[in-house]
Amino acid sequence: MPLIFDIALTHIAGRGRQTLVAVIGVAVGVGFSIAMAALMQGGQDDFVRQLVDTMPHVDITDEQRTARRQPAEDAFATVAISGLRPRDDRRGIINPTAATSWLESWIPGRFAASLKTQGVIRFSSREVGAAIIGIEPEREPGVSPIVGNFVEGSFSALAAGGNNVLIGDTMASRLGAGFGDTITAVSAEGLTRNFKIAGLFHTGTTARDEGEAYVLLKNAQILSARPNAINEIRIKLDDPDRAPAVARRAEAELGYKAVAWQEANESILEALVVRNVIMYTVVGAIMLVAGFGIYNIISTITHEKARDIAIMKSLGFPESDMRRLFLLEGVAIGAAGSVLGGLLGVSMTYAQSLVRFEIAATGQEMTRLPIAWSLMHYVIASAFALGSAAVAGYLPARRAARLNPVEIIRGAS
Amino acid sequence: MSALIETEKLTRVLPETVPVTLVKDITLAINEREFVAVTGPSGSGKSSLLYLLGLLDRPTAGTLTIGGRDAEPMNERERARTRLSMLGFVFQFHFLLPEFTARENVEIPMRKLGRLARPQMRERAGELLSSLGLGEHLDKRPDQLSGGQRQRVAVARSLANDPPLILADEPTGSLDSKSSEQVFAILENLVRERGKTVVAVTHDLDMAARMDRRIHIVDGKID
Fold first, then answer.
1. Same domain, A139 and A24
2. Least buried of A195, A211, A307, A411, by fewest C-beta within 10 Å?
3. Residue after which a domain boundary falls, among A209, A243, A261
4. Does A1 contact chain B (CB < 8 Å)?
């Protein structure tokens, strides 16, 4: 229907200011929904990413879900045994070589075994309780977030061998020790060993920066007098969403507790669901408000054109042409507004991504607003704008087209 | 001479809480090449009759035959089609589409009908406007034209598809006497020279006296 198309374009072009206001109205609605969606989604993605990045996706420890059956319980058919002195099991993951080679064979990702033991770090008469973690430097970078967060020294210093230790910067300042100083580590078994500080890291997680000391696995085994023992296998998967399945399989095979990150953070993820609901409500509300704005502008234009509808009907245009005409005008304004709104959305989202914050009290940590760039935001916002523009053009036009032209002609005279 | 448009007991009642009778039992026949005046006091129903004749409104009772065809069973589309090809309207106010030039306004009914090729439409619109003395104003928009000029554009538009019947509702009602005379002369010329039938509602009795026939309406009935 090229004639109707022509008339629609002339209508739109003929009233530049009004059209501009309508297009800008649509564009602002679309732009703001996009920018808000990018911000909300970005915040959430960033949160989950930090969660997923800072912790292993699956953590296998030497614990078991249920208390171990004692041999006495198997030997006597009794209801309960009181005063039983439990058998002292060897701690750690039994047969670590078999466990790791089995994992190696199927895990879609990387893993690292380690030995975590509680101890005390001592330096110039100050003491700090710490988790002393023995790691394999060749495997650790695949699973640990500390590798890239060094303030001084670097992770590779550990790989060089020797009695080196990596500690958090907060722990260092509590000890009063600096890079290159030699500290003393005391294990729960009472063994003592000296280590040279070969690196200071800062992850932003206080518990880590203040309470973790990384040494070679071999040194940790010596310090805790448990040769060849490991008590934790941390797994990073290529796809974090597969963690629960991997954890289930590992737990079934190895018999040790394997915790997926989703399980470890259940309460946080529950909170995220609530946050999601809030996010979609807010973005939906913005779109709804924008939709009403679009409806308002376009239906006003259509109402103003009631006289033209009467004229064209008197000339011999059927009602269907009139509906099509204003539907077309609404869609054209909606489309122009969506394009402009998309550009507005891009620039607003970009502007948001430039906003910087100083978060840590020390002023070292700079963070940008987390932004999600998603084509879906643009598609949804545009579709919504087009939809409301079409409805806003169609509904009043349908009414006006049904109206007897006589009433409009009479009203004008 | 055959009747171009015939009515039999044409009645139109507005379905309000208190029904308002606009037109009551009008029976008339208008022949080809007739120049007919419809007169009457204001509110008598003369415009309502014109809208019924022009298929812009539907009667509540009675029959209307246009070009030998009964209008009653026509649906909205067919009525629109009939208006497009058989009828031309001229209203008291010009009712041109404000965003389009004089020539485009005249072209629009032709384009809707689609009987001619685009260049011919353009040519015909130019000819029609020139014949009404608007040859220099083809590309002006309505707001750049005077009242008399606009009304002449409206006349040209009513002629666009060469319909046999022109319906005019107070065509000179909002014009000064000089422009009125001009528009009247054009309408008269349509009947005398171009063989059209013109039915014009007017309250100007002098003008009515100069037409072929006068239908006087009082209270919705022929007086």
1. no
2. A411
3. A261
4. no
